[in-house]
């Protein structure tokens, strides 16, 4: 269940409690899937291509992996990233609004547009963070409590080189067996990016006590800092 930012704190907590009561008890020895586990994520190999740092102007990467609040929070803590914007990508600009996208059927995914300095962080490093700690790339059309194609795992290359690097890394990870299931991430056609409404921008930083943020987003940032200390800030 997605806890809407429009809910006040009391309503959000009530909805959260109801959702937790609906979760079945976990059998001994089983671990709930709340995204790629730390053990699995730590074992992901570096991309065979796409790790070279390059001098040049600011570069852009567009990724989708569930609710864009947590995705934004993770990449805002990556060294070399200069800006992260939440928004909608994959569909028509005419339907790029939260009330439309959240209902599904628009073709859009909740995504982020990352502006970064390619002399400080490479596209391949960004992808490793994406597959390791930002979301669970093996879930199809969902992330945790958020279900639907609007929460799919997807990469939207903005040029042929990004497409080549992304496709090669997905194939490499599937061959490696580092993840417990095949990767569900799609590499999709670039159709532009529309920034989300203002209240979605920097949501985690502005709402650290929001129940959804505490449960689903802050742990991702913590994993980034633990597993990628050389990249985290």
UniProtKB/TrEMBL annotation:
Residues in Peptide methionine sulphoxide reductase MsrA domain copies: 60-212
Broad enzyme group: oxidoreductase
EC number: 1.8.4.11
SUPFAM superfamilies to which the protein is assigned, alphabetical: Peptide methionine sulfoxide reductase
Record's signal peptide: none
Alphabetically ordered keywords of this record: Oxidoreductase
Pfam families given in the database record: PMSR (PF01625)
InterPro entries for this protein: Met_Sox_Rdtase_MsrA_dom (IPR002569), Met_Sox_Rdtase_MsrA_sf (IPR036509)
Recorded superkingdom: Bacteria
Single GO molecular function: peptide-methionine (S)-S-oxide reductase activity
Reactions the enzyme catalyzes: [thioredoxin]-disulfide + L-methionine + H2O = L-methionine (S)-S-oxide + [thioredoxin]-dithiol; L-methionyl-[protein] + [thioredoxin]-disulfide + H2O = L-methionyl-(S)-S-oxide-[protein] + [thioredoxin]-dithiol
Active site per database record: 67
Similarity-based family: Belongs to the MsrA Met sulfoxide reductase family.
Function per UniProt: Has an important function as a repair enzyme for proteins that have been inactivated by oxidation. Catalyzes the reversible oxidation-reduction of methionine sulfoxide in proteins to methionine.
Alphabetical list of HAMAP family matching this protein: MsrA
NCBIfam families, A to Z: msrA (TIGR00401)
The protein, known as: Peptide methionine sulfoxide reductase MsrA
Organism of derivation: Cyanobium gracile UHCC 0281
Taxonomic placement: Bacteria, Bacillati, Cyanobacteriota, Cyanophyceae, Synechococcales
